[in-house]
Amino acid sequence: MRRYVIRRLAQALGVLWAAYTLSFFILVLLPGDPVSAMAGAGMDSAPVDPARLEALRHAYGFDKPVPLQYVDHLGRALTGDFGDSVATGRPVTQLVTEALPQTLLLTATGLGLAFLLGGGLALAATYTDRRWARQFLLSLPPLGVSVPTFWVGLMLVQFFSFRHPWFPAFGNDGPKGLVLPAITLAVPTGAQIALVLAKSLLTTLDEPYVGTALAKGAGRAHVHLRHALRNASLPALTVAGLLVGQLMANAVVIETVFSRNGLGRVTQAAVSAQDIPVVQAVVVYGALVFVVVNLLVDLVYPLLDPRIVLSPRRPQVVTA
Amino acid sequence: MGRTLSHARTAGLLVLGVALAGCGSGAAATAGGSTTPKTGGTLTFAVGSDTGCTDPQQVASNDSIYSVRQLVDSLTDQDPETGEIVPWLAESWDVSDDAKTFTFHLRDGVTFSDGSELTAEVVKENFEAAPELGALAGLATGYLSGVEKITADDPRTVTVAFAQPNAQFLQATSTHSLGIVSGASTKLSAQERCTKGIVGSGPFTLAEYAANSSATLKKRTGYAWGSSLWEKQGEAYLDQIVFKVLPEAGVRTGSLQSGQVDAIGNVGRADESALEAAGVTLPARANPGVVFNLAANNSDPILKDAAVRQAIGLAIDRQQVADTVFNTGTQPATSVLAHTTPGYEDLSAALTFDLDAAKALLDAEGWKAGADGVRTRGSEQLRFTISWFANSPTNQPSLELIQQQLRRAGIAVELKQNEISQFATLLASGDYDLIWGNVTRADPDILRSQFSTALSNPYRLSASELDGTLTEQAGTIDPAAREKLVATAQETIVREAYTVPVVELQTKLGVAKRVHALNFEASSRIQLHDTWVE
Prior knowledge:
The complex is a heterodimer of chains A (320) and B (534).
Chain A: H1 2-29, H2 34-41, H3 50-60, H4 66-78, H5 92-127, H6 131-146, H7 149-163, H8 176-205, H9 208-215, H10 220-257, H11 263-272, H12 276-304
Helix pairs in contact in A: 1-12, 5-6, 5-8, 5-10, 5-12, 6-8, 7-8, 7-10, 8-10, 10-11, 10-12, 11-12
Chain B: H1 2-23, E1 42-47, H2 62-68, E2 76-78, E3 85-87, E4 90-95, E5 101-106, H3 120-129, H4 138-143, E6 147-154, E7 157-162, H5 168-172, H6 183-186, H7 190-195, E8 204-210, E9 214-219, E10 240-245, H8 249-257, E11 263-264, H9 269-277, E12 284-286, E13 289-296, H10 306-315, H11 318-325, H12 355-364, E14 368-369, E15 375-377, E16 380-381, E17 383-389, H13 395-407, E18 412-418, H14 423-429, E19 434-440, H15 446-451, H16 465-474, H17 479-496, E20 499-503, E21 506-508, E22 510-511, E23 515-516, E24 519-520, E25 526-527, E26 532-533
Parallel strand pairs in B: 1-10, 1-11, 17-18, 17-19
Antiparallel strand pairs in B: 2-3, 4-5, 5-7, 6-7, 8-9, 9-10, 11-22, 12-21, 13-19, 13-20, 14-15, 15-16, 23-26, 24-25
């Protein structure tokens, strides 16, 4: 177990390094650079003196050879220093730590809601005896997966804020402002969890041991929740780990629709301004969350299914 | 990512438009009848973006200018009706006959919100520091280029001397870009000024700023040195102004309809009827400066032929572009300058839509209609790219329409979207055929920075008599004489079609009924000192 965790941590570092390196070279290869982005932002302005731009490039180190810049940036990133944002001049770490809590709160609430909604839906759909109810409930997740997130957000704002002033349409203030964005975020995620969990529950309920349990006189609800759900939840858990990436991508859209300050907005602004230091920090953060969540998911497997043994030698087999 | 978002936005708007049409009457609207101004209250204004900088000398986007403009006073102000320059912090001024030396006589008793006093020395420090601010301060740097010497003659008199005649400088002193900050603020670095904010002498002070989210302005108590254009003397009416950053246009519109905000910037055509139905007023004013135009790369082997450029101008139906894409009331271009620019000359007779004339011009130049509808001459095809930037939602639909219009004359154009970060590089490299853009500036000298070959010459014109005219207007102080020269310059640019003027940019705001006297200043941005709420 300990060797397993150490090995996974080493892998995580590799993933972080790869994400950092890849994003660095993609940004550098784009035409233009952050300094000309600054100069071009005011399109009404007189063209900025090229010598001045050159001086700025020098100040940020953009005039150095690319491999040297890379080593330089990586070296400082290892000590946790991602430099200053080119567009705003503020320290990147400050920008990220300011925005991070808002996004974490949003994604955590969204993920929690997604588990409740998705799990509840899957349980209800597989538990019910009525064919039509099952068909109806099972048709909801594909719908939830296919409607665009921004559309859901705009619809919610339209009805629950503009038409009926129950929730604010924008801002980060208070739990009330979190309701609509969290629901929006939970819709696609919850739908995917529901899809996988319902499928896996239906398969599990056909297993012989379920029949045995029922034959021994266990109640239907007991079998459903205690026996089937536990085994059926493994694939859903795997999906949830992968969904973290999607949650963060959706946060960009949702933070824009609901005018919330967060990492998504920071990312969007940084990408359009080619603000290399900020994008790099966000990419590393994103990779970090992804790696950590998936490691946690892997560590939870043996708790749910004692047959699974975490071993550094072979990839763990998930039985579904 | 940006691409997905913009698609998302468009699609979202369509849906929202449908939804709003169904429930327009349900929105809350406060019907106001009061006409006596009231002191106090809060105005909430929603804008679409935030550049992360609270220094007026460094911001260039309307959404940021709206808030930071209220923090500083300028030496002069400009009358939006007449274009005339009038006193603000300077009670009077003298300009030398050669338009090289400007002497300002400052008003007494002006203090910054940190308690320090406005002196000639502070003004000198401001104008010396501004060009050192770097890439973001392009506007201020441009206004002050060629400055030779700034002297504080006595505590109330400051003189700015230029190496070259520079008539535009007087109007420049009325802009937000040369708004005066305190002596202490001039000593900060460009980044500190952005993030920590500056100290101004304006009618409002910055109480709180959260990047990408909001800016809260508080009334400056004891303010007594407003612009001579303002109706109210002394302090502002409003206690507080909150600027909220709401990036999604549909959310801005809905928030205004439902009363969650009091005013929004930049109303698009699609949202007008829903807002009007909710009792919102939609004040509008054309931005002065160079209209939206297709600027030709005049060094291009095909585009350097004036007849080709003129044919492009004749083949564009400007009225159709204005009526289909832009907000209601937008005027097609009637000169290279918008009609709100001082010195504007009406050249509508020379900017007509005449497809037959366009075809005849091209025929005469040897461009024959090809098999696929695109004209050819020898082995060449009449085919161009139009480079454009995603800085305005009207750009793409305008250009798609123009693309169809030009096709009817046998001219094929391909649209090429660029990131704004590439704008400066693209102009400098000359790697473009036509560029779509506009420039806001309430002084005709903007023609010189765009079309004089003596300056950066972004459109690669050859030296001509236009250079002489543009240089001469920069050295002419007498308004009537300058106007004449500016008219000649506009006539030349339109006749030679160095650029093809298409449509004016009109700024349209959405303002709730409870808000009064939310006025446009000369550059079609807002002035909030006289604004009051019920």
